[in-house]
Amino acid sequence: xxxxxxxVGVLAAAAVIIVPISLELTKSDDGGTGQxxxxxxxxxxxxxxxxxxxxxxxxxxxxxxxxxxPSCFLPASDQYGYVISSQVVNLTAPxxxxxxxxxxxxxxxxxxxxxxxxxxxxxxxxxxxxxxxYEKGSDxxxxxxxxxxxxxxxxxxxxxYKVQLTNSVIGQPFNFQIIRQSSNAIVxxxxxxxxxxxxxxxxxxxxxxxxxxxxxxxxxxDTFLHNMNYKxxxxxxxxxxxxxxxxxxxxxxxxxxxxxxDGLSHGAYFFNSHAMDVTTMPNPGMTIRTIGGNxxxxxxxxxxxxxxxxxxxxxxxxxxMPAYWSxxxxxxxxxxxxxxxIRQVINRTRAAGxxxxxxxxxxxxxxxxVDFTVDPTHFGxxxxxxxxxxxxGLRFVVIIDPAIAANTTYATFNRGNESQxxxxxxxxxxxxxxxxxxxxxxxNVWPAGKTAFPDFFKSSTAQWWTEEIAEFYQTIKFDxxxxxxxxxxxxxTNVYSDKLQCPENPWDDPPYPTMAARIxxxxxxxxxxxxxxxxxGEDDQYYHYEVHNLYGYTESAxxxxxxxxxxxxxxxxxxxxxxxxxxxxxxHWLGDNFSRWSNLADSIIGIMEFNLFGMxxxxxxxxGFIFNTTEEMCNRWMQLGSFYPFSRNHNIYDAFDQDPGxxxxxxxASRRSLMIRxxxxxxxxxxxxxxxxxxxxxxxxxxxxYPTDLEARQIYKQFLWGPAFMVTPVVDEGKHDVxxxxxxxxxxxxxxxxxxAAAGYVTLAAPLGHINLHVRGGYILPAQTPALNTxxxxxxxxxxLVALKxxxxxxxxFWDDGESIDTYESGHYQINYFxxxxxxxxxxxxxxxxxxxxxxQLDLIQVMGLSTRPNAITVDAVAIGDERYIFDVNTLLLxxxxxFDMNAEWVILFQ
Length: 911
Known about the structure:
The chain is 16% helix and 28% strand. It has 911 residues and is of the alpha+beta class. Strands 8, 9, 10, 11, 12, 18, 20, 21 and 24 form a nine-stranded antiparallel β-sheet that branches. The protein has a nine-stranded parallel β-sheet with strand order 37-36-35-32-27-26-25-39-38. A hairpin with a 7-residue loop joins strand 30 and strand 31. Helix 6 packs across helix 8. It is globular, with a radius of gyration of 28 Å. The N terminus is likely disordered.
């Protein structure tokens, strides 16, 4: 009999996994119990092959079955991997670092191992280093994924890290460590072995300084903190709904962050665009496997979690600055019957008093699901509808899918074909008989018949795509573009004879298939997408195999440019498929989720992860996309979704309407939570400005602000807006209270302004229609009187929420016109800095050189945390009357009703 036990630590009466170790108890022959620790450092030999002992040992691997660990695993690095084959060479200016050559040692796993490789380390800055493992004599820069990155430069004697070889003697096994200078924490350590560099298989394993591991997406997992018990996480863009555990979803973000034992954080970006798997290990550690490219990593040493994200986004690209209107509430569905149906939803929302800024049209509006067309029967007055609703401040977003109907009567296809914009077959494979003579790859998506796929790596495609969008804009005056199905998705690949068939070849059927291929109907990489043997690029230089994960990235970049050009404004792009750096161009939603309580809860994990990935404009389909929601679920989801950075209710064609005006109780809950969102939009907008300019997160997990709090490191059902606003939703059916974790700090109930007395785990009342919100002491949040859309709310006066901690607080407001392009860069902005200390609240102004000033004034200041009512309040040394302020003796909330000029600096004294 075998029993698996977990060893846990206890903190504040709650279980915390400190080091994920398990024990195997085996009953001995004499009836006693022997105890054997599950090994935490096994690098599995040939995953998915289900090796038996004879095959395992014949492959040079070790066989030792232990429940909870791989039975077949690689030997130590002195028997498998690479050995030092040259002297260490120091790099010269402009980059500091070193390199050393290595030679293959031991058996092969999948064949075609590269015999000689180079390990090169580059010190980019005091906080950022890079290392690359590549074929000796090749140029690693030329082999990088074809996306733009910006690497820092400037190393001093204050580097936060050091890199050392375990042994630099020629002929000795190669291993290395990357160490944090300040604490000697080893953040990357290859001592477990497993290094492999073969033609279509690369692998590297590292120990980690702690098991607090985050990131590595996009895939499904039910906690924010990763499970370290030999879990494999696939990374490969696929049209896959999140209906299974541990499956790859729509994008690829090979970035992770580790919170070290002392609370410092570091991050690592694996700069590779191929399909890959990451297997966690209880040691703690991880193995990364991929099917091509170099093993190139950039490490970021923070030392805080927010600084790690800032350093990461400085390399991949800072997030775009969203239009102000795109932070408003948005409504959509696949299944609007006609324009009257859309009008009904808009009118129902307005009648319920629910704020509403953006209305969508899914593929329903198209004629036969064909891009850049309008259904003349059901949507004949679509253009008039868009023009009419926009007069009252509503904005419109239309969907445009990448797959183009391959019909010679369709002008868009003909123009694209003439410009050679579509992905082609490679000449290296046997092209199926039903494919055209010009080698254009045709698949099957929404339009009837075959579809072609634009190659967004080509400049001709960018020009054609922009021209098609511009021509369509002459018909429909949309404000933003929603790009879906861009993994790219393709229906029933390899399944039915009349659908796309990918011939057998090394790219569609690599020696190591990755876990990403294990969920497809035929277990091929090309399942649900196009063939890996297709060719892309200006000179057909890339196999789709190499750049599949970049399809959504390249489409997003071209679409953002086109949208801004035709609207002459910031516009908005929303993409399903993304890659590291996509945040420069697009927002993202979490895909085709289900109307399930589990998907409601998991959405919090998703929005926190994508903020780590440099994509803060993120949300999930509120109330769920697939299946019918329930009234209670939609009530709770609308409350949570009111605080997604991207807030949109959307569902599928065969479900009933779920816009919040359908149910009176949901409408009431939605109105209340969205009015809070709209009141705090100036704070949210300022967070996006900081994200755009510094790379910081908008939504963040609690541990970012409380890095030494071990409990905060594992919280995933609560989140923060920036550093100062905590959201604690109900995510479980039938619950009328919620177990909240309140970090040991100064907190105030947003609804009452009263200080929260307790810290740690606290049960909070949460009747249906109520969401618990807290403001952190020490911060000042800019606000504005809400309205039913942002066009109206931006005209209302401002407010300040001042939450004191030991008598001090600070905050800022970023303001511009809300939709012009690059306002900060061109000087069309104003920043108000608010600071309170020693009973003095001041306003300081930074104004861009091209900015003329803010229109609305400030007419309400609420101060939380004063011990008594002030005897007098002066503004710029002039006393204001007692009737201008109210002090609540029960909550200690001071409300000041006085008009302040937002374009002038002023000082308030509390006496």
